[in-house]
Specification:
Layout: H1 2-22, E1 67-69, E2 78-80, E3 85-87, E4 96-99, E5 110-113, E6 116-118, E7 123-131, E8 138-142, E9 147-149, E10 152-157, E11 163-164, E12 166-170, E13 174-182, E14 186-195
Parallel strand pairs: 4-14
Antiparallel strand pairs: 1-2, 3-6, 5-12, 6-11, 7-10, 7-13, 8-12, 9-10, 13-14
Amino acid sequence: MVRLIRVMVIAAALSVSAACESAPAPAPTGSSTGAAPGTVTSPGALAAVPLRLPTVAAGEPCPVTEPRPWDDHDRAYRVLGPGPVYPVADYFPAGVLPLRERDRQRDGSFTVKVRWLGAGYTGPVLVRAGRIDGPGTASVEFSYLGERRDDGHHAVLTRPDTDLPASTTVGGPGCYAYQVDGVSFSFTVVFRAAPASS
């Protein structure tokens, strides 16, 4: 009887060991596992997606991204892009980032306040910017969160509804785009920068 119990215990141990060996390995940190959008396996890991900004030929109009209505009017009235992390469109009247003399930096570039909002997303986000109608520079920086990384600004959003004070710096008037990357999304937003009318 004791011998039969020993055989049964050994057989059970071997079957558990075999099941563990055939189980799928966990997904690599930061990869998408087919979970719902906005779900993150590791909130601190985001590999930089290649920068793929559109281009605009010289003399062609800037194809600015149309604003979308935003329901929470305490935070914004309109946003740009499909989200779930958005620049607030209210800072781009008629699709234009207004450049004022008070925003001019010593190097001749302009740094303009542009708030961002997160909606229903927690995890890492990387925002990069560039001029798309010719030579020039652009960048984004969140004011209180994240760091400069991978030629952009990287932050980890820990709340699903994040308010992100930020600034956008452009080299001067022109057509520009943001590329916004997260664990479950990647999109671009196009805007024009021009001298403010007043």
